[in-house]
Amino acid sequence: MKLMFASDIHGALPACQQVLDIFAASDAQWLIILGDVLNHGPRNALPEGYAPAQVAEQLNAVASRVIAVRGNCDSEVDQMLLSFPITAPWQQVLLPEQRLFLTHGHLYHPEKLPPLGHSDVLVFGHTHIPVAEQRGDIFLFNPGSVSIPKGGYPASYGMLDGEQMRVHNLENHDVIAQVCITP
């Protein structure tokens, strides 16, 4: 299975278009959006190309291939613009021998884990900082932010291809971080 991950779009149209171009060129089955889709949030400056209504239109074009969770900046008003559900605080993707627990990162995160089993993967956003690592018997994966990167990292997205989870630079697709999630 191949999956693409994007987090913290925050209404940035140029970043959203890049994500959708990459998604279209990949053979990923699903685009997983880890929250903070349309709103920039009160703690963030407006991202380049802030256009939430146009971001909603772009994402609605691939709604049948999106799995999304609610971020701390997402609201009921945002849901009214989107054709795919974003109000669940978490989702799960079941792989043959493990699961991906998808969440934004403000409720569940590495310091406050949900119940996870051996080799499960906590997939989260919120911090805008890429992570791909094993911690004990679980894995942590954060694709960073496509629009407002932090920590000196570039804008980034994630991919799961087989057992490899990688964070890629949004501009040049270089690998920033990676982990093999072998059960």
Automatic annotation (TrEMBL):
InterPro entries: Calcineurin-like_PHP_lpxH (IPR024654), Metallo-depent_PP-like (IPR029052), MPP_YfcE (IPR041802), PdiEstase_YfcE_CS (IPR020935), Phosphodiesterase_MJ0936/Vps29 (IPR000979)
Gene Ontology molecular function, alphabetical: hydrolase activity; metal ion binding
UniProt KW Amino-acid biosynthesis keyword: no
Pfam families assigned: Metallophos_2
Domain Calcineurin-like phosphoesterase: 1-163
EC number of the protein: 3.1.4.-
Keywords: Hydrolase, Metal-binding
Species in which this protein is naturally found: Mangrovibacter phragmitis
CDD domains: MPP_YfcE
Transmembrane segments annotated in the record for this chain: none
Cofactor(s) in the UniProt record: a divalent metal cation
Protein name: Phosphoesterase
Family classification: Belongs to the metallophosphoesterase superfamily. YfcE family.
